[in-house]
């Protein structure tokens, strides 16, 4: 039967701190990665992406780091705000074969920002 | 406004009834997807469609059906054969870089 997992990794920070959310991905052939933010009761919102030919990409207050050697992805949020509180998912995909653009999602991390 | 809309936001059905969830996009995207999300879990792919009049099963297609008669629309039917239909259902469409954009979701409760 299906398992109901309620034990997502959590990260609690104070407002103004920097946050780092980590993700280990599974497929060494993956060449495109995305971070999504999901607030309670809403659909996931695209935050930032990175291709496998890069190891760092910056957006507004967010930075994604990619370490292909250890298949690790991280999302850094600068000056975290209460509005950043959400569940953050990483997703991976690869363009080749019959991937049909399928995204494989990580489990998610709950970020809580305290005022 | 360009985007993906799903309706309704909340849906309640009795066990044994089929129910259809709506998904519409005006992003001119070819590929569309349906996911299911259970509490505290990630997204699982139900069905996807790469182009009009074509669709393929995802990882958990049993008990679901879809159609893709128009580029803009990709409705999902949750049939009575789905053993655990209560969940949060998310529709997405794919942009040029394989990034997916999601709708607001429909929360289905079957009692």
Account of the 3D structure:
The complex is a heterodimer of chains A (115) and B (111). Chain A contains no helices and ten strands. With 115 residues, chain A is an all-beta fold. Chain A starts with 9 loop residues before the first strand and ends with a strand. In chain A, 0% of the residues lie in helices and 49% in strands. In chain A, the strands form two sheets. In chain A, strands 1, 3, 4, 8, 9 and 10 form a six-stranded mixed β-sheet that branches. Chain A is globular. Chain B has no helices and eleven strands. Chain B has strands at residues 4-7, 10-13, 19-25, 32-37, 43-51, 54-57, 64-66, 76-78, 87-94, 100-102, 106-110. In chain B, the strands form two sheets. In chain B, strands 2, 4, 5, 6, 9, 10 and 11 form a seven-stranded mixed β-sheet that branches. Chain B has a four-stranded antiparallel β-sheet with strand order 1-3-8-7, with no helix packed on it. In chain B, a hairpin with a 2-residue loop joins strand 5 and strand 6 (54-57). In chain B, 36% of the residues are buried. The mean pLDDT of chain B is 93. The A-B interface holds A 2, 4-8, 32, 34, 36, 41-46, 49, 89, 91, 93, 95, 100-103, 105-108 and B 4, 6, 31, 38-43, 45, 48, 50, 56, 58, 84, 90, 92, 94, 97-105, 107.
Describe the structure concisely for a colleague:
Chain A has strands spanning 10-14, 19-24, 32-38, 45-51, 56-58, 62-67, 72-77, 86-93, 104-105, 109-114. Chain A is mainly beta and 115 residues long.
């Amino acid at each position: 039967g299906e398992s109901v997992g309620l034990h997502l990794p959590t990260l609690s920070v104070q407002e103004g701190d920097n946050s780092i959310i980590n993700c280990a991905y599974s497929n060494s052939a993956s060449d495109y990665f995305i971070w999504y933010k999901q607030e309670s009761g809403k659909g996931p919102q695209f935050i930032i992406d990175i291709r496998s030919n890069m190891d760092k990409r910056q957006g507004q207050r967010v930075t994604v780091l990619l370490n292909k050697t250890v298949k690790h992805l991280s999302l850094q949020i600068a000056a975290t705000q209460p509005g950043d509180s959400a569940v953050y998912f990483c997703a991976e995909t690869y363009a080749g074969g019959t991937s049909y653009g399928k995204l494989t999602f990580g489990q998610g991390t709950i970020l809580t920002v305290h005022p | 406004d360009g985007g993906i809309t799903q309706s309704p936001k909340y849906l309640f059905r009795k066990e044994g009834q089929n129910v259809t969830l709506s998904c519409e996009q005006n992003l001119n995207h070819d590929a569309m997807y349906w996911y299911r999300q259970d509490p505290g879990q990630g997204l699982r792919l139900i069905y996807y469609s790469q182009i009009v009049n074509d669709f393929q099963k995802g990882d958990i297609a049993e008990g679901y059906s879809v159609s893709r008669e128009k580029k803009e629309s990709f409705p999902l039917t949750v049939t009575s054969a789905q053993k655990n239909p209560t969940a949060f259902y998310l529709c997405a469409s794919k942009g040029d870089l394989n990034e997916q954009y999601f709708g607001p979701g429909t929360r289905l409760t079957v009692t």
